[in-house]
Amino acid sequence: ETPAAYDHPYWEELYVISGSMVEGNPDTGENEIIAPAYACRKPGVFHGPVRTDEGCVLIEFNWYDEESD
Length: 69
Known about the structure:
52% strand, 69 residues, 5 strands, mainly beta
């Protein structure tokens, strides 16, 4: 669980393999992501807080886009 909305300077990809997670969005409220699911966020996008009520298994990839620096 994360306590508040946040952003980061890198790309983020999530693959939810099993279970579900609830993600907050400062603009649209909460969104439940149920496996199987994929999400991608570009740098600087505010999201969260994030929690899971039932548990989930996910793989997360993070990387910096060196060409845009």
